[in-house]
Amino acid sequence: MPTYRDEAVVLRTHKLGEADRIVTMLSRRHGKLRAVAKGVRRTSSKFGSRLEPFMVADVQLYQGRSLDIVQQAESLGAYGAEIALHYDRYTAANAMVETADRLNDGEATPEQYLLLVGGLRALSRGEHASRSVLDSYLLRVMALSGWAPSFGDCARCGKPGAHAMFVAQLGGLICEDCAPAGSARIASSTLDLLRSLMAGDWTSVDAARPADAAAASGLIAAYAQWHLERGIRSLAHLEGPR
């Protein structure tokens, strides 16, 4: 059976037997992979530390019948140690890899892989507030997956205009005529922040008011979890935006 190579970010691991692990990875060209890394729990393992969550590696795998086998792993991005030292970075990273895991039961795109790697790199460097990095990732990965929220025209009828109500179940901003009773109204400054998070405008994101950051985080979490059709468990452990 053939071997193949790819770049991959480790999403999660599970113990297997006394010394092995099952490693779930999001790869650049082959989508989500599950493979057995033999002997990585032994202290003598040459690549055990390269196959921990949040690490990025160049891996060579042997194609097995049910699970592939990791033959080699060379580190491309050692983000795990810096992320694990900070609670806010660690919980945000967990929410990101959990989302990537759930979104990519089928084929993933290289853009989804690169977006996750970029988000983990930003978290490890502490370049921006951890919750903002997560929020930007969630918005952009949902868009790459075909669920881009509407921040302009009405998501239901397409009516243009400055709408002020956001309904996750309907796809984003909603006009007065389409809005269900009790729909949440959002401030124009919160809407501006949502657009900045989607665009990766970090100058505007970093300057946002805490109240707008908190409101945006709540809307993004509701939107992502609605379209994933189940909760993101890691979100329950997140601290508020800083």
UniProtKB/TrEMBL annotation:
PANTHER family: DNA REPAIR PROTEIN RECO (PTHR33991:SF1). Residues 1-78 form the DNA replication/recombination mediator RecO N-terminal domain. Belongs to the RecO family. Involved in DNA repair and RecF pathway recombination. Coiled coil: none annotated. InterPro entries: ARFGAP/RecO, DNA_rep/recomb_RecO_N, NA-bd_OB-fold, RecO, RecO_C. It holds the Pfam family RecO_C. This is DNA repair protein RecO. Keywords: DNA damage, DNA recombination, DNA repair. The lineage of its organism: Bacteria, Bacillati, Actinomycetota, Actinomycetes, Micrococcales. The keyword DNA repair applies.
